[in-house]
Design a protein that fits this description.
By secondary structure, the chain is an alpha+beta fold. The chain is built from 4 helices and 9 strands; from the N terminus they run αβαββαββββββα.
Length: 182
């Protein structure tokens, strides 16, 4: 009986870990990070990503010169950091996206938001259907362009949830078969 309980507990732990592992991790601004220097276009950066509930966005910055404030739409539009919903100041802040819709972030240091250090993340439902051409993007003017694959770098693109599920399933099979060899 103890053997059965041990396996059930192990299985529940594995399924919990499996659920947590499905979120993608995005480094805001990629290699440039969260900065007012270097002309990072955060609107363009966000437009190339598909954010979903459970994904994590990581803000990397020098905490002596920047911070991250999550704000409401009106404060985002006016670059008002006086009444944030949340404030982050560590220099390496990981924020898990917990609900659908827009999430607005800005740097609260005077002048930085006005200089473009602000980010609008749109969290959408996960779609299991692949798009016809994932590298084909329509611009707001109606014309279209084809994106090229980005250079491989850490956190520049999420790992496919299907691949993550496969890895979790294989790990679970290995774990279970270690208790039931034949």
């Amino acid at each position: 009986m103890a053997f059965f309980v041990k396996n059930v507990v192990a299985f529940l732990l594995m399924t919990t870990l499996f659920g947590v592992s499905l979120g993608a991790v995005y480094r805001v601004g990629d290699s440039a990070g969260w900065t007012a220097m270097g002309n990072v276009d955060y609107e363009k950066w966000a437009s190339t990503k598909n954010f979903h509930v459970g994904d994590v966005i990581v803000f990397n910055y020098n905490d002596q010169f920047h911070d991250v404030k999550e704000v409401a739409l009106q404060d985002f539009q006016s670059c008002n950091a006086a009444s944030p919903m949340a404030t982050y100041t560590t220099g390496s802040d990981s924020i898990t996206l917990k609900n659908l819709g827009h999430h607005y972030f800005l740097c609260g240091v005077p002048g930085h938001c006005e200089a473009g250090q602000k980010l609008d993340i749109m969290v959408t439902p996960v779609s299991l259907r692949p798009s016809a051409n994932p590298n084909h993007v329509s611009s707001p003017s109606g014309s279209s362009s084809t994106l090229t694959a980005p250079a491989l770098s850490i956190n520049s693109a999420p790992i496919s949830p299907i691949f993550q599920a496969l890895v979790a399933f294989v790990s679970l099979v290995i774990f279970v078969t270690s208790y039931f060899p034949y």
